[in-house]
Task: inverse folding
């Protein structure tokens, strides 16, 4: 494409350049700002207070963290529906471990291993048994939920007595008022972004979703890529599960159920098409923030919580329509070279 | 008959069956160093099957493959690639949403410590190759979906050049292309030859392959029925021969004396 003549200010050109290169991400960011402004206008009192943001930030990571690794899964053209149950499974492993051996680092380690195992099982079902991921992960969704229900006999297990211990505080404590899970979320987002964009593995994740046959013919072991992606997602879901359970101060067997559609919605609103091949961690991050902003905003505005779902629906539709329009415009406006 | 080691690729009695169907019935196919071979024949002659065996995608049921004199019973895609054989497929091996440079290095990324990509290096190598092969106007950052069919073939050929393939097999590279694009692809083939590489050009359109090939191998229903040097025949002769082969399975008698199968 021809470069713009840099006659105006270089800052404006820079912004225009970034905008046209990242039009999808910019649009998502714009939607986020719009949502924020609307709520700020309706309820300036609550959105001017830092407390509101801390409230959002203490719960947003539970939706966004699994959504970040789910982005990898969706980029490969697959889906994982089992992660809410894996969150519960991981949290249960931590709970049981801490009740047996005390609140040490062993709990999170075993929980992460449990998540890896659950992801490995998903990966093997999909790559070795050739079961479509949508179906395979419905199976494991029920399996792990059932497992946790049987293991706990449906009862909650308190964890509040471990509050104040170092591992507990490192995971969900407050660092000068800011919830620790926020830092974990940012850390996970940065690491996943780094690997997706700058590492060979991330490139293979994209190719697996964009043209799997081509990737295989060029010597990429797409089965291995898929298995690793599901393992990463299992592990990160288990981590999100332990953050939820520790934040709430108790383990309950239905843990995770509400995050299923929210996390998938965060990925979709964030601009990753369900068909795979493209997608960004940045988009998912902002997509998740949009959804949590809406939830908190509606409650802060003071209307009933029933509105949350309706507005979610609206925002998801608006975001999807915007994405479709951007992609169409991009194809229409771009010169086809050599045609 | 000449020694197998004199050829870049030499196959001996290759047989490939798919269930009851015998797709290749004892193929002795050869490619010289720095030679463009036109592999022509009607649909179902076994051209693509032969290409896929050479690229390691299919395993032959019988026969041997010699590559630079080294003998193999079978190849894998990785092995074929290590030996310098690159197949440009009929089906496009491109990730459409990704930039050209990523596509060129797909599966063989240049990486630094810990497997992180050397993006600048790959992008610059891509720009250089695109320039050399005549895709000057295009930035290596352009997503492949914004390229026409001919340019997409070009990207796949650039990929083969980048990895120093000795033999590039083009499977129907001109199918569905406009006239100017066909012209472009033919130039890529000439460029390969100029660089000392060999090329197998598979097509059933002799008007595309005639200008660039040095030798023609004619395949019919799983058998090689004839081989000709381009110098020995005109495009009309070739067309005449192919029609006869399609009708009767044999080449007209007057061409037998220049058929390399019997004279070599």
Result:
């Amino acid at each position: 494409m021809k470069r713009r003549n840099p006659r105006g200010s270089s800052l404006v050109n820079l912004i225009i350049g970034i905008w046209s290169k990242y039009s999808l991400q910019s649009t998502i960011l714009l939607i986020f700002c719009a949502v924020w402004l609307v709520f700020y206008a309706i309820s300036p009192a609550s959105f001017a207070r830092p407390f509101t943001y801390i409230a959002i930030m203490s719960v947003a990571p539970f939706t966004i963290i699994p959504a970040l690794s789910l982005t990898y899964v969706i980029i490969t053209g697959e889906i994982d529906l089992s992660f809410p149950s894996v969150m519960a499974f991981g949290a249960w492993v931590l709970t049981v471990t801490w009740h047996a051996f005390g609140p040490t680092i062993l709990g999170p380690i075993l929980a992460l291993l449990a998540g890896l195992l659950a992801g490995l099982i998903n990966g093997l079902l999909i790559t070795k048994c050739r079961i479509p991921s949508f179906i395979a992960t419905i199976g494991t969704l029920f399996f792990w939920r059932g497992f946790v229900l049987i293991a706990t006999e449906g009862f909650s297990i308190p964890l509040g007595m471990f509050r104040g211990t170092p591992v507990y505080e490192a995971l969900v404590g407050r660092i000068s008022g800011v919830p620790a899970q926020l830092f974990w979320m940012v850390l996970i987002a940065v690491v996943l972004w780094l690997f997706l964009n700058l590492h060979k593995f991330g490139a293979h994740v994209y190719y697996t979703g964009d043209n799997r046959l081509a990737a295989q013919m060029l010597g990429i072991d797409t089965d291995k890529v898929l298995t690793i992606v599901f393992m990463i997602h299992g592990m990160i879901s288990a981590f999100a599960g332990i953050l939820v359970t520790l934040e709430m101060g108790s383990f309950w067997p239905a843990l995770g159920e509400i995050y299923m559609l929210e996390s998938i919605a965060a990925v979709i609103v964030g601009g990753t098409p369900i068909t795979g091949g493209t997608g960004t961690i940045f988009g998912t991050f902002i997509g998740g923030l949009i959804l949590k902003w809406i939830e908190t905003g509606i409650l802060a505005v003071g209307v009933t919580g029933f509105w949350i779902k309706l507005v979610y629906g609206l925002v998801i539709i608006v975001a999807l329509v915007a994405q479709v329009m951007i992609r169409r415009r991009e194809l229409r406006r771009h010169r086809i070279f050599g045609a | 008959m000449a020694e197998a080691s004199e050829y870049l690729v030499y196959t001996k009695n290759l047989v490939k069956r798919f269930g009851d169907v015998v797709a290749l019935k004892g193929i002795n196919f050869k490619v010289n160093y720095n030679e463009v071979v036109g592999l022509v024949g009607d649909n179902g002659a076994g051209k693509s099957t032969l290409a896929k065996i050479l690229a390691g995608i299919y395993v032959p049921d019988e026969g041997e493959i010699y590559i630079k004199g080294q003998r193999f019973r079978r190849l894998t895609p990785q092995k074929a690639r290590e030996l310098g054989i690159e197949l440009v497929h009929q089906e496009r091996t491109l990730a459409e949403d990704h930039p050209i440079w990523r596509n060129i290095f797909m599966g063989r990324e240049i990486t630094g410590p810990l497997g992180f990509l050397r993006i600048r290096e790959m992008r610059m190598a891509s720009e250089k190759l695109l320039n050399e092969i005549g895709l000057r106007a295009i930035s290596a950052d352009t997503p492949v979906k914004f390229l026409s069919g001919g340019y997409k073939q070009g990207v796949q050929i650039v990929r083969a050049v980048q990895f120093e393939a000795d033999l590039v097999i083009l499977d129907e590279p001109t199918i569905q292309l406009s006239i100017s694009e066909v012209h472009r692809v033919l130039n890529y083939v000439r460029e390969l030859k100029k660089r000392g590489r060999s090329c197998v050009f598979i097509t059933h359109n002799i008007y595309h392959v005639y200008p660039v090939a040095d030798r023609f191998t004619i395949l019919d229903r799983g058998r090689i029925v004839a081989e000709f040097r381009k110098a020995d025949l005109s495009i009309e002769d070739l067309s005449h021969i192919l029609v006869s082969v399609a009708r009767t399975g044999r080449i007209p008698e007057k061409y037998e004396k220049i058929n390399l199968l019997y004279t070599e």
Summary: The CA atoms of residues 215 and 229 of chain B lie 4 Å apart. The longest strand of chain B covers residues 9-18. DSSP finds nine helices and eleven strands in chain B.
